[in-house]
Amino acid sequence: MYITVHGTAALVIARAVPNPFLAFVLALVSHFILDFIPHGDEHLIQKHFTRGQTLRRLVGVAMLDGLIMVGFLALWLWVGPAVPRGAVAASLTGSLLPDVLQGLYLVTEWKWLKPFQRFHLGLHNASGHPLTWHQGMLVQCMVLTALWLLVI
Ligand SMILES: [Zn+2]
Fold first, then answer.
1. Ligand 1 centre from 2 Cα, in Å?
2. Is this prediction's pTM over 0.70?
């Protein structure tokens, strides 16, 4: 899922769990649960793409997605409920860590990250229900909306 969705899940968790360590762990688990839901962004990485094509696509999407997430986060921190900042930081770290590690693997191709990369990408296809990009956007918008209703 897009990092805006993962980041919003992190806010839901931080609001419910003020303990930073627990918030981190739950947010990390939430990342994998959300990635298991068919969401259509599996098309960002294709086997026939060169490494450069994959990186350009992911960086472009991550920059736009990251800007949207930062905007939502700033808005929530400004007008949302009071939540311990330590829990928010820990939860955001846990929820975004898998995608950061994926990006690190794609840039460096460090072998020690390959098993994690295989696991992470495997989750995206584990349900066996691939969606088109449009269907995936609809799913992600619905999940994002549901999470925002929980967080505000
Ligand atoms: Zn992911």
1. 8
2. yes
Tell me the helices (H) and strands (E) count for the chain, helix number first: 6, 0
Residue extents of the structural domains in the chain: 3-80+95-151
- 118 alpha carbon to ligand 1 midpoint, in Å? 11
Identify the DSSP state of 45.
Answer: S
| Ligand 1 geometric centre to CA of 86 (Å) | 23
Residues 48-96 pLDDT 10s: 888 888 888 889 999 999 999 999 999 999 998 999 999 999 999 999 9
What residues have a C-beta under 5 A from ligand 1, the ion?
Answer: 35, 98-99
pLDDT in tens, 55-65: 888 899 999 99
Q: How far is the CA of 48 from the centre of ligand 1 (A)?
A: 21
